[in-house]
Amino acid sequence: MKKHLLRELPSVDVISRNSEIESLSQNIDQEYLTQIIREETANIRALILKGEYPHDDINVGEIIDNIKNRLTSDFDFGLKKVINATGVVLHTNLGRAPMSLAIKEKFENILYGYCNLEYDIEKGARGSRHDHLKELILKLTGAEDVIVVNNNAAAVMLVLSTMCSGKEVIVSRGELVEIGGSFRIPKVMEHSGAFLKEVGSTNKTHLNDYAEEINENTAALMKVHTSNFKMMGFTESVSIKDLKPLADSHNIPIIDDLGSGVFIDLRKYGLEYEPTILDSLAQGSDVVTFSGDKLLGGPQCGVIVGKAKYIAMMKKNNLLRALRVDKMTISALAMTLSLYLDKENLEKNVPVLTMLSQEQCQLKEKAQRLLEMTDLKNAKADVRVETSKSQVGGGSLPAQYMDSYSIAVSPGAISVNELEQKMRLTEPHIVGRISNETYYLDVRTIFEEELSIVSTKLSEILK
Ligand SMILES: *Cc1c(COP(=O)(O)O)cnc(C)c1O
Fold it and tell me: Are both 320 and 363 inside the same structural domain?
């Protein structure tokens, strides 16, 4: 048995002359390919010698497939496309905000060539990477200047390190939040060299609580948006508008960490009010920080806007060198921001807003269409359209659930967990949600052009 299998096992040379392998070899280094073939045949020889080879004759097709799989998986590094059927619009695990197709061409131009990142084209001299956003942010928010860093955590860090190092910052106990498991205001403050002065209680803080703590060592009053939790009931906090006269009378600045950077009033989509950057500045914040990849719908980054004199200080802080962003982030952010100038097409152009602004009837129609597209002829499953709740996610509007529609599947032939796993492992990977022994695909976060993929995969798996 062993002998005849060993005799049948094709040589490395014979395998490399196989037509399928030959067609692959045009794009692959010959030496590398030979090594893979050698490893594969050595594996099979070892199996034969141990008496563990599973077939009676050598299965050449399987050997070729194994080699092909090795070659594809060896080069398949990095991130993979996922279809988000969870209904969570800003899903931190799934990359938060999907970026706009409207910027694709312009963005590609920057990616695959040189650009004026730190070059002043008019003067023909060195420029600053931060200048590209200045005019745009002024137009959109009225802020005097802007600086962009790696994420909002870095933004808060840079602000505190620049404006408050070695001094005290007053924050309400109701706003000492933890976001995403690792961002805790007290910790960030510690790293920045600023000292935290907590005031008030968890549920109530009054203007007087701030006033009593101000002394000659106070560098700033800070507000932190309680992004991912909501306090109900007997609560009170002091607004920026009310803090402003106090801050002014002591000549100290107000810092506002907004978290989600939103430029528009979300109430027009039937959502709760989320403080906008404009409102924060108008009420008297001197410096505002927010994320680029939350409600703004851009790339991961932290944006700091506000008074020119503070931003200028930040530009001189050595820490900036460690936190600064590259040309991809700056151009993607600038292009995303410029979409906000075209208010008419905003919901069309910014996917996060497309998803948030979908109306009930549209979602219902989308779910029904997805169901109709799915071939259930031989499926032993109960598949139907159901109402569901989607979330904004990403630490935005924590208590806000949006009415949505889902495809609900109760599979008969396989378990709900198996269905979830099969959808997840297929390519492109489809991530849904299990609840009450039912598998849900929320259509809010599925792009129109992804519907046919989802229906095809679901049909295949349920067949
Ligand atoms: C999300 C958030 C952060 C952290 O922002 P990243 O961009 O994730 O670093 C900080 N502060 C608040 C209030 C947030 O909501």
Answer: no
Measured from the Cα of 257, ligand 1's closest atom is 13
Task: Tell me the angle at which helices 152-164 and 308-316 cross, rounded to the nearest 10 degrees.
Answer: 100
Closest residue to atom 8 of ligand 1, CA basis = 152
- Look up the pTM and report it: 0.87
What is the span of the domain harbouring residue 376? 82-89+355-462
C-beta of 151 in contact with ligand 1 (< 6 A)? yes
Going from the Cα of 19 to the center of ligand 1, the distance in angstroms, rounded, reads: 54
Structure tokens at 49: 């010698």
The two three-digit tokens of residue 34, written as one number: 């030979």
pLDDT at 25 over 80: no
Sheet holding 88-90, edge to edge: 88-90, 381-393, 396-411, 438-442, 433-435
Closest of 388, 438, 440, 416 to residue 85, by C-alpha: 440
Name which of 214, 213, 221, 218 is nearest 244 in CA terms. 221
* 292 and 322 together in one domain: yes
The verdict on 167 and 307 lying in the same domain is yes
Cα–Cα distance for residue pair 137/133, rounded to 1 Å: 6
**Is residue 290 included in any domain, yes or no?**
yes
Asked if 162 and 248 sit in the same domain, the reply is yes
Q: State whether 295 and 365 are in the same domain.
A: no
The predicted-structure confidence for 337-350, as pLDDT tens digits, reads as follows: 999 999 999 999 99
Tell me the C-alpha to C-alpha distance, in Å, between residue 450 and each of 85, 386, 428. Answer: 10, 19, 10
**Residue 249 sits in the same domain as residue 129:** yes
List the alpha helices (DSSP H) in 168-264. 185-192, 207-213, 240-249
Asked if residue 59 and residue 112 are part of one domain, the reply reads no
As a three-state string, the secondary structure of 23-92 is: HHHCCCCHHHHHHHHHHHHHHHHHHHHCCCCCCCCCCHHHHHHHHHHHHHHHHCCCCCCEEECCCEEECH
List, for residues 176-230, the tens digit of each pLDDT value: 877 766 778 888 889 999 999 999 988 899 999 999 999 999 999 999 998 666 6
Name the band, by pLDDT with cuts 50, 70 and 90, for residue 378. confident
Residue 188 CA, ligand 1 centroid: distance in Å: 11
Same domain as 136, residue 43: no
pLDDT of residue 77: 78
